[in-house]
Design brief:
The active site is at 65 (proton acceptor). Its EC number is 3.2.2.27. By secondary structure, the chain is an alpha/beta fold. The protein has helices at 10-18, 20-35, 47-50, 88-101, 112-115, 141-155, 165-169, 190-193, 203-213, and strands at 38-39, 59-63, 119-123, 128-129, 160-164, 181-185. The relative contact order is 0.16.
């Protein structure tokens, strides 16, 4: 697995690729992709970084694990390829956008359109074995993605971090809230959303409000 990232990320992350933990992670991922079906496709593992250059990052959304069913994962958290049925969490994200911004529910669940506008859609774990949720957790990916979050916090200003659910909320310790904007809510999964922890958070309009006040272009969600 040769990390393929836009050049803008390399000055910040190059050193990570040389570290012992990443070498071990690399060996593990190579072996997994050789022995079993894994997602996303190998050339899309670092897609989040390749659709959103470091200098363009305005918003960060943190997911946990890639989707693990056929044809779903494309390297961006919560996103699926065109033509793929929307998973329940993504359905709830779109429903919230629908009511929050009064826009039509989209046909495509492919969130590359967000990433291209400066939304880093970062899963904490970037790979998974087919049909085995969490199978690549605690192998080194979280160490790497924590560095990514902290790097954005350290080297950028006024980024909007959207932390959805208990797992993402734990990442708040990596973010300097004095120089960034952190919005927290329940997870969009049905379990959390149906208990009233997701719907009505208005994170999409709030994010655009912050960006507008900063004189930045808002996101077309």
């Amino acid at each position: 697995m040769k990390p393929q990232l836009l050049n803008s990320w390399m000055p910040y992350l190059q050193d990570e690729f040389e570290k012992t933990y990443f070498q071990a992670l690399n060996e593990f991922v190579e072996k997994e992709y050789y022995e079993a079906e894994c997602f996303p496709p190998k050339d899309q593992i670092f897609n989040a970084f390749n659709h959103c250059a470091f200098e363009n990052v305005k918003v960060v959304i943190i997911g946990q694990d890639p989707y693990h069913d056929q044809g779903q994962a494309n390297g961006l958290c919560f996103s699926v390829n065109d033509g793929i049925k929307h998973p329940p969490s993504l359905v709830n994200i779109f429903k919230e956008i629908e009511t929050d911004l009064e826009v039509a529910y989209p046909e495509s669940g492919n969130l590359e359109r967000w990433a291209d506008q400066g939304v880093l859609l970062l899963n904490a774990t970037l790979t998974v074995r087919a049909h085995q949720a969490g199978s690549h957790q605690k192998k080194g990916w979280e160490t790497f993605t924590d560095v990514v979050i902290k790097t954005i916090s350290d080297y950028k200003d006024n980024v909007v971090f959207l932390l959805w659910g208990g797992y993402a909320k734990k990442k708040v310790k990596l973010i300097d809230s004095k120089k960034h904007h952190v919005l927290i809510s329940g997870h969009p999964s049905p379990l959390s959303a149906n208990r009233g922890y997701w719907f009505g958070n208005k994170h999409f309009s709030k994010t655009n409000e912050i960006l507008r006040e900063l004189g930045k272009e808002v996101i077309t969600w």
